[in-house]
Amino acid sequence: MNSFFEWWRRGSVWVWLSGATLALSLLMVAGLILFLAIKGMGFFWPGDIHQIQLADGTIWGQVTNHEEESRYHPARTQVKIANRDVYGQDFRWVDDAEILNRSFPGDALYIEKLDGGPFIGRLVQIEEHGQVLAVGDKALPIAQKRLSGAKAYQAQIKSIEQSEAGALSNRLEKLRLDGRKLELQGKRNPRAAQEIEDKKQDIHKQFEQLQARLEALRNQSRALTVTLETADGNSRIMPLANIVRIVPANSIGLFGKAGVYLSRLWEFVSADPREANTEGGIFPAIFGTVMMVLIMSIVVVPLGVLAALFLREYARDGWVVRTVRISVNNLAGVPSIVFGVFGLGFFVVTVGGGIDNFFFPERFPAPTFKTGGILWASLTLALLTLPVVIVATEEALAAVPRSQREGSLALGATKWQTLWNVVIPGASQGILTGLILAMARGAGEVAPLMLTGVVKLAPSLPLDGSFPFIHLERKFMHLGFHIYDVGFQSPNSEAAKPMVFMTALLLLLIVLVLNIFALRLRRKLRRRTGGSSF
Amino acid sequence: MTETIAQPEYRFTQMPIRTDGPPLTDPSVQSAPILVHTESLNLYYGQKQALFDINIGFPKNTVTALIGPSGCGKSTLLRCLNRMNDLIDDVRIEGKVLLGDQNLYAPGVDVIGLRKRMGMVFQKSNPFPKSIYENVAYGLRIQGIKDRSVIQDAVERSLQGAGLWDEVKDRLNESGLGLSGGQQQRLCIARALAIQPEVVLMDEPCSALDPIATAKIEELIFELKKKFTIITVTHNMQQAARVSDFTAFFWLGKLIELDLTEKIFTNPTEQLTEDYITGRFG
C-alpha cells in the first residue's frame, strides 16, 4: 500500500498515461497508412482468373470478396467478371452453394482496354487487314509483340491532335478574337476583315491536310485486329490499338505478375486518367496538387510574414492589435467551404470579372478569368492558411532574443536593418514551420477548391509548352477532389474503390514529400545560422 | 571634434601621491579632456524616477567604472549614453547628455549616427547567428560599405584589437555561436570596435564569464583605452579596482561619489561609499 502511494506521488501514473496516449496516437496514424496501403497497393497486382462452373453456365473472373453466411444472405463470393459491354456490369455475387467446380484456365486473359472497361476471356485470332495472322495459342505472342507498335500509332495520333491541331485551333480562335477586337474598337473595315478571312481559309486548308494525315494514321492503327471470346462464347472483334495491356494472368508466374504490377504502378503515377477517372493514371491530379500548393506557398509566405512583422514589430500594442490578433486566430477556425464561397464571390466573380472586362473584352461572353482556375484556388487556399503562417511567424519573431536586437541597434542599425539582418533570419526556422503546417493544410483541402477551379477532368495541364507556358486561368485536377469524385461520383464506384485508397495514399505521400523539402530547407538554414530557436 | 569642451561640474579630488613607489595612476588621466558628460540628467520609468540629477563626466582615453548595488541606476545611465533607453516604452528623460559639445537628446539628433560613435558590449554575449566574419563585418555592412578589402581589413584589425584573431583566423566562416563564452564576448567587443567608435560602453562584460576569460577581457580593456574612452558597469569591486582610472559610486539612482579609483578604494570621501566598498551593504 505504501509503495502504491509512493508510486502515485512520484507521478508515475502520468508518465504511463502520457506514454500510452502517444503510443495510441501513433498506432492510429500507422494503422491508417497501413490500411490505405493494404487496400490500395493490391489494386495493381494481377489476380488469378478463376473459372467457375455454375449450374447455368461458366463464368471467368477474379475473386474480389467473400462473405460468410449471415441472416441476410448465404455464403457468397464476389467475382469481377469484367466485360461490361457484354454483361452490363463488372461484378457479380455468386452463392457458394451454386458453385459446382473451380479451375484456373491457362489461356484466360485479362485485357485492359482504352474504353469500355477490362475484358476477361481468350484470344481467338489476330488479323491484319482482314488476313488471319495466327490462331489460338500462337496468336498471343504476336499480339503482345505488335501491341507496342499499335500503341505508338495511337500516341502519334494523340500528339498530332494535341499539338498540331491544337495550335491550329488556337490560331483560329486568335483570329476570331482579333476580328472581334477590331469590331469592338470600331476599326473594322472590309480590308482587315478580308485579311482575317483569308488567314482563316488558309488554316482551314491546313486543317483538312491534318485530318487526312490523321485519317491515314487511324486506318493504319485499325489494320491490326484481334478476335476475343468470353467464357460463355460471346466474341468481340476490336483493333489491337484499343488495348492497353494483355495479361495472361494464370500463366505468367510471379515475376511476370511483378512486372505487370510495376508497369501498372508507373502508369498510375505518370499517365492520364481513362474511363471517367476510374482507370489509368492520376498524373494531372498530382501535378495540379503540387502546383497549387507551390503557388499557394509563394503567395502566403510573403503575405503572412509581412503581416506578422507589422503586428509584432511595428504596431503599437493596444486594443486594435489585440482585436486583429484575435480575429486572425479565429480566421483559422472558419470552415473551409466559407473560404470557398468567398473565393468564388471575390476572386472569381469580382477580380476575375474585372480582369475579363479590362483585358479580354473580345472573348465575351466566354470567361477567361471569371471562372474557376488554379490561380483563384491557390489564392483562396493562401487566405485559408494565412492565419497559420501569421501565428507561427509571430511566435518565431517573439522568440528572437532581445539581446540580439539590441546588439544590432547598438551598432547603428536602423530598425528595418535589424529586422532584415538579424530578426528575420533568426525567425526563419519558425516561419518555415508555419509554412509546413500551411502546406499540409492546403494540400488536403477539397471543399473550397470545388468552388474555385477544380474539375473532374481537365483537358490540359496548367503548365505546358504553349505560350505563356503557365496558364493560371486554367482549371485543374486535384488529388483530394479526385478521391471524392472517383469514390462517390463515379458510375462504377465498386471498380474504382482501390483507386480511392491508392489516391489517398499518394496524397499523403505528396504532403510528406513537400514537408521533407521544407524540413531540409529548415535544416540547411539551421546549419548556416548555427543556432536554433525551435 | 572641437577641443573647447564644456567642463562639467563634478567633484574631483587630488589623488594621494604614493611615496613608497611609482604612482599608481598615470597622472595624465587627471588632465585628460572630458569627452562625454551629463548635465542634470533625470530619468523616469513611468512614474518612478530612476536617475536623480546626474552630473558626471568621462575623460578621454580613460576607463571609468560605474559601481553600486543592483537597481542603483548604473546600467540605466550607461544606456542613456547611446540612447538605448529609447527602445523601452514609457521612459522619460530630462537634462542633457553631451558627446563633445553635441547634446544627444536635442531634437533632431541622428540616433543611428550617434550609436556608431558609441560602441556597446552587453552583459550577456550576443553574437548574431552568423559567421564570425559576418558578425564583425555587420556594423560596416549596414552602413552600406561593400568594398571587400575595406571590410576584410576592418574585420582583421578589430579581431586583433579584441585579441581574438589568433584563435579564430582559421575559422572565420564558422558560426559565431560555436565559440566559447569568453570568445563570444570578445567577438562582441570586436564587433563594436569594427565601426571605430569613440566611446565603448560595457555593461557588466564579464559577469557571465569564468576567471580566465575575465582576465583576458580585463587585459583587453587596458589595451583598448589607448584608443577609446571606456565606460564600464561592474558588480565586481576588484575588477573596478584593477581596470579603471575613475570609479563612480551610485546608490538609489544618485551619483554619490566620483573620483580616482585609488581614492575611492583607499580613502572615499562619503561614508556610504566606504560602507559599500567594505561590504557593509550591497
Largest sheet of chain B: 6 strands, mixed
The CATH fourth-level homologous superfamily of the domain at 283-529 in chain A: MetI-like
Regions of chain A with pLDDT < 50 over 5+ consecutive residues? none
Distance between the termini of chain A: 43 Å
What Rg of chain B do the Cα atoms give?
19 Å
User: What is the subunit arrangement here?
Assistant: heterodimer
- End-to-end gap of chain B: 39 Å
Shape label of chain B: globular
Strand percentage of chain B:
15-25%
CATH architectural designation of the domain at 283-529 in chain A: Orthogonal Bundle
Give the strand tally of chain B: 11
H-E order of chain A = HHEEEHEEEEEHHEEEHEEHHHHHHHHH
Major sheet: arrangement of strands of chain B: 7-8-9-4-10-11
Give an overview in words.
The complex is a heterodimer of chains A (534) and B (282). Chain A has a domain at 283-529: MetI-like (MetI-like fold). Helix content of chain A is 61%, strand content 13%. Chain A has 15 helices and 13 strands. Chain A has helices spanning 2-9, 12-41, 84-87, 139-185, 190-222, 253-270, 283-314, 319-331, 336-359, 374-399, 402-410, 415-444, 447-452, 479-488, 493-529, and strands spanning 50-54, 57-67, 76-80, 91-95, 101-103, 109-113, 119-128, 131-135, 224-229, 235-239, 243-247, 273-274, 279-280. In chain A, the strands form three sheets. In chain A, strands 6, 7, 8, 9, 10 and 11 form a six-stranded antiparallel beta sheet that branches. Chain A starts with a helix and ends in a 5-residue tail after the last helix. Helices cover 34% and strands 23% of the residues of chain B. A six-stranded mixed beta sheet of chain B has the order 7-8-9-4-10-11, sandwiched between helices. In chain B, strands 1, 2, 3, 5 and 6 form a five-stranded antiparallel beta sheet that branches. The longest helix of chain B has 14 residues, at 148-161.
